[in-house]
Every structure is written in structure tokens, then in C-alpha cells.
Amino acid sequence: MIGSLHGRIVSKTPPQFTVEVGGVGYELQAPMSTFFRLPAVGQDVRLLTHLVVREDAHVLYGFATEEERRLFRSLLRVSGVGPKIALALLSGLSVEAFARCILSEDVASLTRVPGIGRKTAERLLVEMRDRLGPLEGDGARGAARPAPETPEGEAFDALVALGYKPAEASHLLETVGPGTHSTEELIRRALKSAVRA
Which tens digit of pLDDT belongs to each residue from 73-113? Predict the structure, then answer.
């Protein structure tokens, strides 16, 4: 999978743009939150990406921040939500605003986003409730997320990717105890702790 791109912007037509990397032009789509942060045509850009493979196309999506990409990926796991709706949500709400909508069960704000009806909004409330930890630290839910660039943060993300809820991932990392451990060691010890529990 293509995880990131670093190259020169050669065209921009919202929500699509093209980035040339080593002589190859990659067509991407992005939420408006990312699109508005893009530099001018001809300038260099570095983006995180997510590749969606469909029967009729391979579509590459670009994101300015890890939080946006993480939310996009979480939204794709909600039944009835595809890339188009996920892009609309990220274009209409910031990551923080989306998290607030979910935590406060604000259906009205979600339904203001084009393509989101009441049923989809209610499904989002139910299915996204347990996935908010990786989105914004989620201290209100007792799942304090470690800083992303640390071994603890990388281990936390790995445990969530393996299917643990954010609160469970935080608890497992707490059981590892103090000390300087690599990301791999933290994950190994946390998983051992989960088996013993």
C-alpha cells in the first residue's frame, strides 16, 4: 500500500489534485480540510495517503495529518459509509468537531453534512463511540493516548489496529510498567499481559 507521498503539486481541481513523484503523477482526492492547506501548484508537498481498491478503480486519498487519515480509515469500517461520505464528513467537520458530535450524540450536526441522513448519523454514533480514542486522545473516556511519535504511541496505535478498544490498549500498556522499551517490546509485553488477564 502507498502510505505517503512527497513530491510536487502539478494540478489542483477540488477535491482532486496531482502530485508528481519521481516523474510519476499520482492523482489524489482529499477532504477540503487538507485541500485548503495544500501549497500552490509547483510547490513541494508531503502527504499521508490511503489507497482504496475497488472493482473499477484504485483511488488514492491524501491527508495533511495522521488524525485525518485515522478518522477516514475508521469511518470506512462503518457499514454504509464509503470513501465519498468519509470525505464529506472530513470536509464538513474537523476531527475534533466530529469527536464532539459523537461524544455528545449530536445527530443534528452530523446530518448537516451532505450525504448524511438521520439513519447514517445514528449508525455513526453507535459504531464510532468506541473508536474515538485514537482520534483525539479521548481523555474524557479514560483512554489517554500517548504522544504519537513515541514508542508508547506507536504501540498504542498498533494495539488499536489489532482490534483493542482505546481504553483496553491504554490499560495493557500501563501493565507493562516503567522502563525504556522499544515499540516492538511494548507490543509484545502488552499482548502477553492480555493473554494472562
Answer: 999 998 889 999 999 999 988 888 898 888 888 999 999 88
pLDDT 10s digits, 48-61 = 999 999 889 899 99
Which residues lie closer than 8 Å to 65 by C-beta, 6 or more apart?
A: 34, 48, 95
CATH class of 66-134: mainly alpha
Q: Distance between CA atoms of 29 and 6, rounded to whole angstroms?
A: 15
Second-level CATH architecture of 141-196: Orthogonal Bundle (1.10)
pTM, 2 dp: 0.68
Over its C-alpha atoms, the chain yields an Rg (Å, rounded) of: 18
Residue 106 identity (one-letter amino acid): D
Q: Do residues 25 and 18 make contact, with C-beta atoms less than 8 angstroms apart?
A: yes
Neighbours of 8 (CB within 10 A): 15
